[in-house]
Design brief:
This protein is α+β, with helices and mostly antiparallel strands and about 140 residues long. The chain is built from 3 helices and 5 strands, in the order αββαβαββ.
């Protein structure tokens, strides 16, 4: 795993997911990250139709916990090649952010991908930046 580059910004993450995502139908992928933001595992979580894909936060977090992740990045494609987030994209990102806080497992980014471009929720202020994501909780008095 040490030879895999850390996903430290949205451009590197875009390149990482481009290796996996096709543009026939909408797909939702997640990458589980270790504490240094290096990929542990990348997995297709959902496949949909040409213009729709069902996504539930529990399945994203189930994958992340199963891989013992310190953080996760979500990506999905728009086969239409338009990377502007839809209302549904914004709503699910808000739900993921809420669940992330409660579960203490950071969503580093949610990226919408086309063949040549991407939209990053982190870069646009919807999620914490790549550098400020931390899941530590200090215990004790």
């Amino acid at each position: 795993m040490s030879n895999i580059a850390a996903l430290t910004n949205s451009q590197i993450s875009f390149k990482h997911f481009k290796k996996y995502i096709t543009n026939d139908v909408e797909e939702v992928w997640a990458v589980a990250l270790n504490s240094r933001k290096s990929p542990i595992k990348t997995k297709c979580i959902f496949k949909g139709t040409v213009d729709y894909c069902i996504l539930h936060p529990r399945d994203i977090f189930k994958f992340a916990y199963k891989e013992n992740a310190s953080g996760i990045i979500i990506a999905h494609n728009h086969p239409s090649q338009h990377t502007d987030p839809s209302n549904a994209d914004i709503l699910i990102t808000k739900k993921l952010r809420q669940a992330s806080k409660f579960l203490n497992l950071p969503i580093i980014d949610h990226i919408i991908i086309s063949n040549t471009a991407y939209f990053s929720f982190a870069d646009n202020g919807w999620l914490k930046s790549y550098s400020s994501s931390s899941s530590s909780i200090k215990m004790g008095s």
